Amino acid sequence: MASPNGGEDFESSLLSFEKLDRASPDLWPEQLPGVSEFAASFKNPITNSPPKWMAELESEDIEMLKELGSLTTANLMEKVKGLQNLAYQLGLEE
């Protein structure tokens, strides 16, 4: 039967104190293009200027986002269904 400290000895034998240099793009390539820039944009969340994607929005767009954000899941699904039906009707008219 294993001793009570056997698990700790095993875990400590698995530890590695090797220092890895993650600065090399050859050893650590970017997994998905653009992820580094996206992650860097969130390092300083307190800024005075709006995000780039929000700069092009008009006040009507922002109001629509607020309205959609306040809907429950069921209400949002109804809204999407209504938009799908509207798109279908427009397709029939063309």
Descriptive notes:
It is a single chain. The chain has helices spanning 6-14, 35-40, 52-55, 59-70, 73-93. By secondary structure, it is mainly α. The longest helix has 21 residues, at 73-93. The termini are far apart. Belongs to the lin-52 family. It comes from Culter alburnus. One of its GO terms (cellular component) is DRM complex.
Total beta strands: 0
Mean pLDDT: 79
Termini gap: 78 Å
Could you tell me the strand content as a percent range? under 5%
Helix amount: 55-70%
**Which series of helices and strands comes N to C?**
HHHHH
Radius of gyration: 26 Å
Shape: elongated
Q: What is the overall number of helices?
A: 5
What does the main sheet amount to? none
Coarse structural class: mainly alpha
Assembly context of the chains? single chain
Low-confidence stretches: none
Features of the shown structure:
single chain; 94 residues; mainly alpha; 5 helices; 0% strand; elongated
What order do the helices and strands come in, and which of them pair?
Layout: H1 6-14, H2 35-40, H3 52-55, H4 59-70, H5 73-93
